[in-house]
Amino acid sequence: MSNQHEYSFFQSVEKSFEKATKFTKWEKGLLEQIKACNSIYSMRFPVKMDDGRIEVIEAYRVQHSQHKSPCKGGIRFSDAVNQDEVMALASLMTYKCAIVNVPFGGAKGGIKINPRNHSVYELEKITRRYTSELVKKNFIGPGIDVPAPDYGTGEREMAWIVDTYASLKPGDIDAAGCVTGKPITQGGVRGRKEATGLGVFFGIREVCNMPDVMKRLGLTTGVEGKRVIVQGMGNVGYHCAKFFREHGSKVIAIAEYEGAIYNADGLNEEEVFQHRKATGSILNFPGATNLAKSSDALETECDILIPAALENVINGSNADRVKAKIIGEAANGPLTPEADEVFAKKGILVVPDMYLNAGGVTVSYFEWLKNLSHVRYGRMEKRFTENMNGKILEQIESLTGNKVSDAERKVIQHGPEEVDLVHSGLEETMISATREIMDIWHNNPEIPDMRTAAYVCAINKVGTSYAELGIFP
Ligand code: GLU
């Protein structure tokens, strides 16, 4: 995916970082330390495939920063994985966690395979072997480095990881906290699956609720009625589309690697998903028009464009043709620095990946806390809150002589379930982060774009943390 004429992904991250340093007060050496990847584990291991062939698997785990422990970041399965990409993604994790006040350093892992080319059994063997390599080198553990899902991985892979880890660390009472994004039955938390997509929605909704920002873009406030295009129908893209649609936006186009579809009246992501499952493609969806190339969706007119797949999809060669007013980076690194420059000139608002897609790691943090505390969210307070709300309601009813309907009673009395607390913690996190970054941007007119403001925010937080730790002589 990388564009030969432009920077490598890691260089792009470095470039964006450097653009922001002049708006911070940290000395050069400390900035160098913040930017550098601390530990890089590049591995090769053999796996016997179903047909008896031995394949050498190329894989990585990069820990960008240990200014806070553990390190945190997903593991991707893709045949485009390489060390530079994993380094870039690990760096983004550090900045992302800092912005949303999740007390982790950044890390990322990658296995260079196309999961479509492997049987489930082969994938399990690869994942388990990768995990045991991480254990051998002390690159995984609830207090060391905690992986999670990313492109090409999900709950199933996380279940294999926790099982492998636990079997190699008998008696480790906190073993479940060695990885997040697990199935609920294996120590996962409710709300993790939709977290990144929901976080993207909360972040963009907050931006759309800022009257001055919307006025500058020539848009009305609120997400209702906005025309949204989503590129990528994986876990993140699917949930982005779902939450925008449920809140009154119109998802007018959806792109996948086999092509794109368009319907000015709006598409239903679940129906598109089922159609793809049944036919193997999103194309020829009833009522929609096929777009000739998948990338055409990126260049179709809309209010909000959500790239939710891989990096570098909008670059110097196509940025000029993008007609969106707001670009919400649900993927990691979908825009190159060249694209940033084009959009800054045109006044298109780019809401940057490094905080916008932080919903995943935020809820991962909640999952990790749940694992360490060994208790489900809501277990202690749900019943208490319901009883208390019931008593308050009774008093109000007797004082006013009015009775609420059964449906209203249910809503008012409801005590928090795990998923309610997780969603509410995520909403609070995304709203605060959006406001914090916007404030940094608005208080310094020299800062060219929201990404640079986000980097300033991240660098200041990581810098403060290093300063508090003290640097060894
Ligand atoms: N892979 C996700 C990301 O890029 C989630 C990471 C995590 O939960 O640790 O942010």
Topology overview:
Elements: H1 9-21, H2 28-35, E1 39-48, E2 54-63, E3 71-77, H3 83-99, E4 105-111, H4 120-136, E5 145-149, H5 155-168, H6 195-208, H7 211-217, E6 227-231, H8 235-246, E7 250-256, E8 259-262, H9 269-279, E9 289-291, E10 304-307, E11 326-328, H10 337-346, E12 349-351, H11 353-356, H12 359-373, H13 382-400, H14 406-413, H15 418-443, H16 450-469
Parallel strand pairs: 3-4, 3-5, 6-7, 6-10, 10-11, 11-12
Antiparallel strand pairs: 1-2, 2-4, 7-8, 8-9
Summary tags:
binds glutamic acid, 473 residues, single chain, alpha/beta, globular, seven-stranded mixed beta sheet, 2 domains
Structure, described:
- The chain is of the alpha/beta class and 473 residues long.
- The protein folds into two domains: 35-186, Rossmann fold (3-Layer(aba) Sandwich); 190-381 and 416-473, 3-Layer(aba) Sandwich (Rossmann fold), CATH 3.40.50.720.
- The chain has helices spanning 9-21, 28-35, 83-99, 120-136, 155-168, 195-208, 211-217, 235-246, 269-279, 337-346, 353-356, 359-373, 382-400, 406-413, 418-443, 450-469; strands spanning 39-48, 54-63, 71-77, 105-111, 145-149, 227-231, 250-256, 259-262, 289-291, 304-307, 326-328, 349-351.
- Helix 1 (9-21) runs parallel beside helix 3 and helix 6 packs across helix 12 (359-373).
- The site of glutamic acid (GLU) has 11 residues, from strand 3 and helix 12.
